[in-house]
Amino acid sequence: MLNRKELNPEKSPQAAFGARVRGSREARGWKQDDLSALMGFSSGHISAVETGRKMPTLRFSRSADAAFGTAGSADTFERAWREIHHGALLEGFPEYLTHEGRAAEVRLFETGLIPGPLQTREYAQALANSAVQRGVITREQADERVSFLIERQAALVRNLPPVIIVVLDESCIRRPIGSPKVMDAQLDRLVEFAKQSNTVLQIAPYSIGERRPFDRLVNLLTLPDRSVVSYVESQTQGHLDRELTSVLPLVRAYHQLQAEALSQAESVDMVHQARKGPP
Question: For position 85, what pLDDT does the model report?
Fold first, then answer.
């Protein structure tokens, strides 16, 4: 106990996570060796997470949920981990994903980047690698980010899949990400997506100019009870909204966007043209 380090959960989300692990462990009268046996991580690793010297991983978080019996609750260690990794930019995103995984209809709009549900692993890896090079995340976090994306995509594959409507700004297919091979495969993925019976793909061309109603990501979900949830992001934060008065204007704007966008056939032709490059 003489070497016990006092924790300050207010210091950072990572510190709060570590303090919660220690508090949960001590509330059960467990030593770090006891928790180690339950989680499959060394006591040294657990100590490093508790004191904030080591960043928790997705596997660590899920193991903690299993050990402490918090899996499936509203306040899991996994959710805390996702909030650490996504930060304020994706505030509300973990809750959004819960809804997305059971939605009857998913409507997406994105500028600049292919949205997560349509990304290939290689495209997602290129984005994650860039974040590592810029010092935004660690290599371990990059790998977890890609794995998390694959899990998100898998949640949309069901016996009765949702209708998925995607409108992409033209910049999404013009902006090169990764190598030419990576980008070619990503554009092929868009074409394959458009062929599915439960999907719609449209491109909002540059030519619609000011008639494009959105300037950033907008996600709209129709839930099994027919209620609609919106999720939007700015450069600094994300926002999940269930209020009809603020969600309905986004739904109307999305319909206006679809009316201005190219048809699916025209959109697929544009994707093919982008794959071939300028004439």
Answer: 64
